[in-house]
């Protein structure tokens, strides 16, 4: 049989026309009738009945980018019983359909994470199928709304400048921590590792993104200052390059580290205590110095740098450990190191973690003193 | 019997007044010649017939001379005599006997320049309108004893001659049988050109055969390429286009230049062509799907640009696309119909002025104009015209499904289109499959060696 | 083996890894998912070997042909009907899962019925094609989509945000007792070979099937299983992955193509998987139609020279699908699918038994003749 059964053709024809009839009933929105949301901010409100204050930053597109090269946004905010409730109310404030598909910035107010339930916010963000899991989660200081409404002078149309900090295309500063929504979720829900999200501050009409906050269990928080943030970034291999200031007697020089590699372990000792082992390898280059340096002294410089790095690293780790925070994931490592029924229970682990010993091994390889001797 | 035939012939050709009778008589030699003066080569008659007649010593000599001429044709019935006369032969009556000589004069055996399938490299001359010349061209290109030529006629009224050419060793026997059978079933009064013949070959499944399953070409190199690939070629008297059967999908995507370039370049060009095919099928549908259902698939900047450029456009995207496609098709049609000197004006007016004015007047977005132009250009990348005609209409279906079911509709419709192509057959050959027909043949040969 | 054989096996493997199979596995991640996977893979490979060897010894013959020659009529009819139902449901599950998925993620504005009709339109066209045409279609779609799906898998493995510690944690649950539902679900991935009951008519030449082929399938199978289970764990964490409705869609959404034309991988993934599920559906329903053809004579019922039975079949198929789509939600679908997988545990041994009897009867027949 070469040609198809004629009856089938007719049948398909009928089905086809059936489908065409539905065309009249099909409903679609047109692209210019939707309002693209650039960012969402969640703050606590003063009204205890309606605790969530949701702000949106919406692209205001009235023509082509060529026609209006200045960035222009619409800001709306509303209080609601839940986030969805607030969104429903917001829909009445905007004449177009709210389109969450391009949402990239999720700003949680500094007070929001402390006063409101993070699980509720996560639930909203994860449940909506149109919110990208690769949007960035960050904390706004003093409030999400303020940060959301800030438009620095360097901003171009159609691309909010906050995007540039996190999209890894423009800015590669070691002080910036990038946390995707899916990362935030998995770290927040999993026992044994805690999420770290960047804090956005405003200073003289510009964003400052150099601090971060660790969200611990039971509403405990640890703010990382810029140095800690940098160390954290280096340790977790998130930064591409980082600088280290080394002071020794009257020598002072800067080392630029790159190609780092960190390996961490949490080992349970025979007596039930825990040792945290960290091995850190990096290559470095001296980039700036107060006094002229001699290349022959490179081993000495290496030694000083290693000492300095170990000191910084240990300080950072003990700060985390003593607060009971575990953003690096020692707990996770421990969970994966043994069969699940041989682990100590979680509370015990927390206790042991706080009292754990730290072993910090560092292998630096200074390759030179730059172009000057 | 002799006189009967002559009277019958005269009766038949009564109205034309063109049948010329000449009596050749000298001493005891007598002969009559009949011909239609507008069809025969008068000089040849003079050279081949009349001069020898007067030089020959006797009628016997003359008859033997005529019988040995290469132009001499065999015949059985008086109807055959008539049809030969009508195709330009000369009837010689000698001693109660008829001898027919083909001394036809043709003004159409000049080789035509190629204008449908131009290439940069490769020959610039195609076939002529004379069947003999065309067979001659092909024999000249393809020196194989296995090349078989079978002549026959088609059309009850005009009895147009055609020739079936194929390589006896390479052609598939069952395909050949099927094709011959199909040719025999053609029951038409008038067949004028090979393009018309094609539509009659396909007559039986007019509704289902939407895609061309037979290829028309004017390039001798493509004909040779296909003969070597085991295909059947049909050449027709009076037509510069040859029919190639069976033709599968990939045959329509081959440009002869692929064989003239170096490996990487020809592969690049091939990839470009398939990409063009994809673009011209999918792009309008994708535009409709993205702008109506899923703008989140685009990057922010692009989404905003499209959204911004659509501000003020009164129609939904699918009407916008159909509207612009409609004008593009009109433009293409118009520039074919117009004389060459004026078609440039049509494209300028249509393409440039209308396009700009339409965006200025906010009837369409400028992204739309870009898309339509891209689609139009990529349609012309397909080397065989019939295929690009078929492809042009497929995208309309895709637009409909895109407006029903968004991106999923586009993908589904594309799969449906694929299934349709796969389901087609060209004389028992599957129309679309991953390994193409010719490659399979080549592999088969390699195995035989 | 002919490459078309691999398409049959692989399509079933790949088409199901993003739908309910991983969800079922994650539900049981702390009680025996991994061991179930390993066991199911071993059993699955045994099934593959059995079915392939059997059909290979009867080149070009379909199961209905063989049933007719060796079994009583009543048994043939009943058994064929059981098979029809199983294969129809297999296709139905794919269709419903995918329609819901598409409407959730891609075109929330389209109505469910509309989406179902659009898919039905093309699939009903496809599944009435001849077996060789179905296989050619599969080949083309397979070859177009496969590179991209592999690319996404490779990208997932190399992504800097995949956390291997979660995968290690998932591994620590290896010492739990296997469960029946995840076992059945994983076994289903390997049952693509059962489509040979109809598609065997395409394989008219005896094929070689030995250790090489089995080890290739083992390699691919274990790779696919590992990917299905551990990639989402690596992206979404271990503790709470069971709360996700579509772990694989979320995982695809967690990948970002920084320099790609489309930044969000999830859309490419959805569209290419749509093509994949269409061909899976095509295979299953083609088998269904061919089985029905063996029971009913399509030429019997004709109105003005037009066969009526295909109309009736299409109408029944469409009606069942459209009704089912409206009644089944995501939770129902999960249970429905689980029951279907478990029911396969009964069907596969039955089918094997029948095949064994057929083989014996053919042998007896041959002996008598000689």
UniProtKB/TrEMBL annotation, chain A:
Domain Spore germination protein N-terminal: 29-202
Subcellular location field: Membrane
This protein's UniProt keywords: Germination, Lipoprotein, Membrane, Palmitate, Signal
Taxonomy, superkingdom: Bacteria
Keyword Ubl conjugation attached: no
Membrane protein topology class: Lipid-anchor
GO cellular component: membrane
Subcellular location, principal: membrane
Spore germination GerAC-like C-terminal domain mapped to chain residues: 212-370
Signal peptide: 1-29
GO-annotated biological processes: spore germination
Pfam families for the chain: Spore_GerAC, Spore_GerAC_N
Stated family: Belongs to the GerABKC lipoprotein family.
Protein's UniProt name: Spore germination protein KC
Species, as recorded: Ureibacillus acetophenoni
Record lineage: Bacteria, Bacillati, Bacillota, Bacilli, Bacillales
From TrEMBL, chain B:
Transmembrane segments: 232-254, 274-295, 315-332, 365-384, 396-422
A GO cellular component annotation in the UniProt record: membrane
A Pfam entry, by short name: GerA
InterPro entries: Spore_Ger, UPF0353/GerABKA_families
Source organism, top-level taxon: Bacteria
One annotated GO biological process: spore germination
Keywords: Membrane, Transmembrane, Transmembrane helix
Keyword Membrane: yes
Assigned protein family: Belongs to the GerABKA family.
PANTHER family linked: LEUCINE ZIPPER PROTEIN 4 (PTHR22550:SF5), SPORE GERMINATION PROTEIN (PTHR22550)
Name assigned to this protein: Spore germination protein
Organism (species): Ureibacillus acetophenoni
The organism's taxonomic lineage, starting at the top: Bacteria, Bacillati, Bacillota, Bacilli, Bacillales
TrEMBL record, chain C:
Superkingdom of the organism of origin: Bacteria
Keyword hit for Transmembrane: yes
Subcellular location: Membrane
Gene Ontology biological-process entries: spore germination
GO cellular component, one term: membrane
Alphabetically ordered keywords of this record: Germination, Membrane, Transmembrane, Transmembrane helix, Transport
Database matches in InterPro entries: Spore_GerAB
Main localization of the protein described in the UniProt heading: membrane
Spans through the membrane: 7-27, 33-55, 75-106, 112-129, 136-158, 180-202, 214-235, 265-287, 308-328, 334-358
Membrane topology label: Multi-pass membrane protein
Similarity comment: Belongs to the amino acid-polyamine-organocation (APC) superfamily. Spore germination protein (SGP) (TC 2.A.3.9) family.
Protein name: Spore germination protein
Organism encoding this protein: Ureibacillus acetophenoni
């Amino acid at each position: 049989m070469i040609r198809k059964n004629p009856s089938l053709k007719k049948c398909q024809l009928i089905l086809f026309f059936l489908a065409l009839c539905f065309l009249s009933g099909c409903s679609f929105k047109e692209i210019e009738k939707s309002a693209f949301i650039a960012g969402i901010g969640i703050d606590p409100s003063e009204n205890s009945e309606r605790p969530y204050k949701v702000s949106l930053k919406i692209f205001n597109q009235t023509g082509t980018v060529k026609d209006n090269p200045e960035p222009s946004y619409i800001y709306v905010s509303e209080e609601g019983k839940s986030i969805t409730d607030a969104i429903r109310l917001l829909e009445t404030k905007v004449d177009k359909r709210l389109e969450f598909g391009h949402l990239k910035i999720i700003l949680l107010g500094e007070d929001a994470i402390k006063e409101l339930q993070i699980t509720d916010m996560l639930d909203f963000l994860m449940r909506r199928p149109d919110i990208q899991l690769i949007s960035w989660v960050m904390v706004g200081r003093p409030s999400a709304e303020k940060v959301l409404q800030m438009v620095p002078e360097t901003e171009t149309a159609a691309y909010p400048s906050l995007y540039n900090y996190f999209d890894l295309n423009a800015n590669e500063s070691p002080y910036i921590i990038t946390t995707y929504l899916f990362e935030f979720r998995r770290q927040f829900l999993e026992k044994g590792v805690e999420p770290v999200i960047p804090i956005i501050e405003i200073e003289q009409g510009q964003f400052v993104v150099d601090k971060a906050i660790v969200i611990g269990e039971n509403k405990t928080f640890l703010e990382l200052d810029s140095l800690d943030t940098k160390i954290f970034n280096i340790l977790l291999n998130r930064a591409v390059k980082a600088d280290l200031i080394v002071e020794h007697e009257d020598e002072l020089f800067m080392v630029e580290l790159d190609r780092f590699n960190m390996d961490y372990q949490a080992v349970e000792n025979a007596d039930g205590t825990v040792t945290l082992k960290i091995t850190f390898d990096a290559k470095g280059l001296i980039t700036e110095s107060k006094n002229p340096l001699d290349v022959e002294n490179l081993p000495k410089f290496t030694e000083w740098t290693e000492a300095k790095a170990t000191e910084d690293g240990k300080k950072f780790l003990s700060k985390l450990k003593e607060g009971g925070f575990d953003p690096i994931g020692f707990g996770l490592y421990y969970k994966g190191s043994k069969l699940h029924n041989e682990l100590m229970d979680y509370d015990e682990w927390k206790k042991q973690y706080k009292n754990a010993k730290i072993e910090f091994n560092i292998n630096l390889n200074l390759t030179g003193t730059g172009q000057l001797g | 019997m002799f006189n009967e035939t002559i009277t019958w012939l005269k009766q038949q050709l009564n109205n034309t007044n063109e049948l010329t009778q000449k009596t050749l008589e000298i001493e005891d030699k007598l002969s009559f010649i009949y011909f239609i003066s507008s069809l025969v080569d008068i000089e040849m008659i003079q050279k081949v017939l009349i001069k020898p007649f007067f030089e020959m010593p006797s009628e016997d000599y003359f008859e033997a001379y005529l019988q040995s001429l290469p132009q001499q044709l065999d015949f059985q019935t008086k109807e055959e005599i008539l049809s030969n006369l009508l195709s330009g032969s000369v009837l010689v009556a000698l001693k109660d006997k008829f001898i027919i000589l083909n001394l036809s004069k043709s003004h159409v055996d000049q080789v035509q320049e190629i204008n449908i399938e131009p290439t940069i490299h490769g020959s610039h001359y195609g076939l002529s309108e004379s069947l003999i010349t065309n067979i001659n061209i092909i024999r000249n290109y393809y020196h194989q004893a296995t090349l078989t030529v079978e002549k026959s006629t088609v059309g009850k009224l005009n009895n147009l001659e055609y020739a079936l050419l194929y390589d006896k060793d390479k052609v598939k026997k069952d395909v050949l049988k099927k094709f011959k059978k199909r040719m025999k079933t053609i029951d038409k009064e008038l067949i004028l050109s090979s393009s018309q013949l094609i539509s009659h070959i396909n007559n039986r499944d007019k509704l289902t055969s939407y895609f061309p399953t037979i290829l028309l070409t004017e390039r001798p190199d493509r004909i040779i390429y296909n003969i070597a690939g085991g295909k059947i070629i049909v050449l027709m008297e009076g037509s510069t286009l040859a029919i190639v059967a069976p033709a599968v999908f990939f045959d329509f995507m081959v440009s002869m230049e692929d064989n003239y370039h170096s490996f990487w370049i020809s592969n690049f060009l091939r990839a470009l062509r398939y990409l063009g095919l994809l673009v011209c099928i999918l792009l309008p549908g994708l535009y409709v799907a993205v702008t109506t259902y899923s703008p989140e698939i685009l990057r922010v900047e692009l989404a905003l640009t499209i959204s911004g450029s659509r501000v003020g456009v009164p129609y939904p995207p699918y009407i916008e696309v159909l509207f612009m496609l409609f004008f593009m098709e009109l433009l293409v049609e118009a520039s074919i119909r117009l004389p060459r000197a004026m078609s440039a004006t049509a494209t300028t007016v249509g393409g440039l002025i209308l396009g700009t004015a339409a965006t200025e007047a906010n009837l369409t977005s400028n992204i739309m104009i870009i898309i339509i132009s891209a689609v139009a250009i990529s349609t012309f990348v397909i080397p065989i015209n019939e295929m690009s005609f078929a492809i042009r209409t497929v995208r309309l279906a895709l637009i409909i499904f895109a407006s029903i079911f968004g991106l999923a509709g586009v993908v589904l419709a594309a799969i449906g289109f694929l299934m349709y192509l796969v389901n087609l057959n060209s004389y028992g050959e599957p129309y679309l499959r991953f390994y193409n027909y010719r490659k399979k043949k080549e592999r088969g040969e390699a195995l035989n060696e | 083996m002919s490459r078309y054989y691999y398409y049959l096996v692989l399509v079933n493997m790949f088409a199901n890894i993003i739908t309910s199979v991983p969800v079922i596995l994650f539900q049981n991640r702390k009680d025996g998912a991994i061991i179930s996977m390993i066991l199911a893979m071993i059993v699955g490979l045994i099934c593959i070997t059995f079915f392939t060897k059997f059909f290979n010894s009867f080149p070009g013959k379909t199961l209905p042909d063989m049933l007719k020659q060796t079994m009583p009529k009543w048994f043939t009819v009943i058994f064929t009907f059981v098979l029809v139902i199983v294969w129809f449901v297999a296709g139905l599950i794919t269709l419903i899962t995918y329609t819901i998925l598409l409407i959730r993620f891609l075109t929330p504005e389209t109505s469910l019925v509309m989406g179902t009709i659009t898919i039905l339109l093309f699939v009903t066209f496809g599944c009435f094609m001849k077996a060789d045409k179905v296989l050619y279609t599969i080949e083309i779609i397979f070859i177009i989509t496969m590179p991209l799906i592999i690319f996404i898998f490779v990208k997932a493995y190399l992504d800097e945000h995949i956390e291997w510690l979660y995968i290690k944690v998932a591994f620590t649950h290896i010492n739990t007792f296997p469960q029946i539902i995840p076992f059945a679900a994983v076994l289903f991935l390997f049952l693509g070979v059962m489509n040979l009951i109809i598609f065997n008519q395409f394989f008219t030449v005896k094929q070689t099937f030995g250790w090489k082929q089995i080890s290739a399938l083992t390699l691919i199978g274990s790779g696919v299983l590992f990917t299905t289970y551990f990639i989402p764990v690596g992206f979404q964490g271990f503790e709470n992955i069971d709360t996700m409705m579509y772990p694989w869609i979320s995982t695809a959404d967690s990948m970002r193509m920084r320099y790609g034309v489309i930044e969000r991988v999830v859309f490419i993934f959805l569209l290419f998987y749509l093509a994949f599920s269409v061909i899976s559906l095509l295979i299953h329903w083609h088998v269904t139609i061919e089985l029905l053809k063996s029971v009913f004579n399509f030429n019997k019922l004709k109105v003005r020279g037009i066969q009526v039975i295909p109309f009736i079949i299409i109408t029944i198929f469409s009606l069942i699908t459209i009704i089912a789509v409206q009644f089944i939600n995501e939770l129902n679908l999960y249970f429905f699918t689980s029951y279907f997988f478990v029911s396969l545990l009964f069907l596969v041994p039955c089918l094997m038994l029948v095949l064994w009897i057929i083989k014996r009867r053919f042998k007896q027949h041959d002996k008598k003749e000689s």
